[in-house]
Structure formats: structure tokens, C-alpha cells
Amino acid sequence: MIGRLRGKLIHKAPPWLVVDVNGVGYELEAPMSTFYDLPELGREVSLFTHYAQKEDSVSLYGFLHESERRLFRDVQKVSGIGAKIALAVLSGVSVDAFARLVQTGDVTALTRIPGIGKKTAERMVVELRDRAADLAGAGGAVHGAGAASDPLSEATVALQQLGYKPAEAAKMAKAAAGDGDPAEVIIRKALQSALR
Question: Which of 14, 67, 126, 169 could potentially form a cystine with 158 if both were Cys, beta carbons 3.0 to 4.6 Å apart?
Fold first, then answer.
């Protein structure tokens, strides 16, 4: 099992990134919470990882903070939730905010995360309420990082990969985009607006 990687960040395009570790490029899928804090390309990065093997595929997920990886794993223990929705959760809210939503039983706010309907949100509240207290206070701060060649298009594609329909993703990205904003900032603003 691969639990952690440290190497040079050589590619990042949400939700994918590639880390070169002694000449081997590891492709990882990461939530936006990790993308917000990534260093510039060519700089060293250290990521906690989650290795997942299915019958037809192998996936590696990367997280800057152990609390993100723990939430990613905990969310998937809820019936009917897989890696895609777990990534959407981490891309839509911070670890602390998610813990608060679960502790307070805020089903309405949870359903604003793509892929989570009312029944799934209710299951999350019931099944994760006991663990939410452990997650609260464990999250890291979120900061923007790096500019893209076409931030609006990159943000739109990332929102689609998080589960939003193409027209909805384009509308969200356009509404959130400020002058000179990198893709990560546009995505963060769009996701924050969607949760209001």
C-alpha cells in the first residue's frame, strides 16, 4: 500500500496531478481542498495517499492533510458513497465545515454538494455523527495557488468532473470568475456559492 508520496509536482489540472518521485511519475486524483494549497509546478510536495483497487482499475488519491484523507475514507464507509462523491465533499467544504454540518444534522446544506441527495445526506448524518467530533478542528487553512493558461475553462472542466452538468458548471465558473483569478480560486468561489 502507498501511504505517502514526496516528490516534484510536475503537472496539475483539477482533479489530476502528477508527482515525480525519483523518476517515477505518480498520477493522483485530488480534491480541490488539496489543489488550493499546492505549490507551483517544479516544487517539492508531500502528499498523504489513499490506494484503491477495483476489479477493473487501480486509483491513487492524494491529500495535503491527514484530516482530508481520514474524511475521504470515513465518507466512503457510508452506504452508497464512493470515491467520486467523497472527493466532491472535500472539494465543496472544508473538513471542519463538513464536521459541523454532520454534527448539526444540516441535511439541506449537505444536499448542495454534487451527487448527494436527501437520503444520502441523512445517512451521512446518522453514520458519521460520532466520528464528526474527531474531524472537527483537524482541517487546515485554504489558500489559493498557481495560475492556469485558461483558468475559466480549467475551472469549468473541474466542476464537471465534480458532478455538475456542463451548462451548470460553465454558468457557475463564469459567475465566480474575477479578473485575473486562477482556476483554483474560481472553483473555490463557485463551490462556496453553490452551498449558499
Answer: 14
- The verdict on pTM exceeding 0.85 is no
The answer to whether the Cα torsion of 59, 162, 117, 69 is positive or negative is: positive
In the 8-state DSSP scheme, what is residue 2?
-
Give the count of alpha carbons within 13 A of 138, CB side only. Answer: 17
Q: Any idea what the Cα angle at residue 45 is, between residues 86 and 141, rounded to 5°? A: 55
DSSP state of 139: P
- The whole-angstrom separation of Cα 159 and Cα 190 is 9
**What grid cell was written down for 140?**
487546515
Single-letter amino acid, residue 38: L
Q: What's the CATH class of domain 151-194?
A: mainly alpha
Contact present, 88 and 78 (Cβ < 8 Å) = no
Domain boundaries, the chain: 4-63, 151-194
**DSSP 8-class letter at 60:** E
Tell me what pLDDT residue 133 has. 67
C-alpha cell at 78: 457510508
Superfamily of domain 4-63: Nucleic acid-binding proteins (2.40.50.140)
How confident is the model over 49-63, as pLDDT tens digits?
A: 999 988 888 999 999
Query: Tell me: the pLDDT tens digits for 162-190?
Result: 778 777 888 888 899 888 888 888 888 88
